Amino acid sequence: MFSKILAEFIGTFWLVLGGCGSAVLAARFPELGIGFAGVSLAFGLTVLTGAYALGPISGGHFNPAVSVGLWRSPAGFGGIAIGLALTLVHLISIPVTNTSVNPARSTGPALFVGGWALAQLWMFWIAPLVGGALAGVLYRTVLQRDLEEPAVAGQGRR
Question: Which class is domain 2-148?
């Protein structure tokens, strides 16, 4: 269990360093021009690389909401799909909310900022955890069942 917790800690550190670090540097040095797309890619690529590097040890979630969504789920995952999905989420929502869909990632910066950031932190825990749980239920009730049903000869998969 210690190695799993350590792997998740390292992965979360990597995510905060790569994602938040790029956001801070992009804001501080606008002439570099990484902008929203660069920050979005930084978050996606840190999850992608962390998932493949640390996933065999801990599952590579680095996000309590993902852990909730994947609870007693099948082993294995697609690090590329997860990383690219996170990139897309950030591309869509950084201009709207400065985005964080990871409660653990939200907590560290909120502790440093204090005040208003801590007052809003509850929403950055509740929304992703509820979303992760709903995604897990959706997968188990709709998608997993459909994937497990054998195709009837001549009808193909529905």
Answer: mainly alpha
